[in-house]
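A student in our group prepared the protein record below, which I am reviewing. This is what I was given:
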Amino acid sequence: VLRFAPTGIQLDDENFVAPDLFWIRPNSPDCVLKPDQTYWLGIPDLIVAVMSPATALTDKRDKHRLYERFGLREYWLVAPEGRYVEVFQRADDSLHHRGVFGIEDSFHAITLDAQIDVQSAFMA
């Protein structure tokens, strides 16, 4: 299930987020649509944040820590101005930095089990 903003996710009673984009594997028990279909409950498999100068610090520090704590499997930080994607993937109990990928690069998305061509992503 692929979702775009504005669609919210309630991680727990105190944490509600509205990522730019998120993906949930089919039949995931970890993130389910609330019965009234107003928002999702739990942690998705992949969250993509499109950074701006106003949100970069929050996305890189605060949200990263929050998503790591709740068990997110993969987190992408997209920088439209710099034309790069920074990728974090879960290993053990934390989100590890897997690299910064420029417009000429590609990377393997573990949640999608697919090779992502950065240039194509910016053209979409």
Q: What stands out?
A: The longest strand covers residues 94-102. The radius of gyration is 14 Å. The chain has a mean pLDDT of 92.
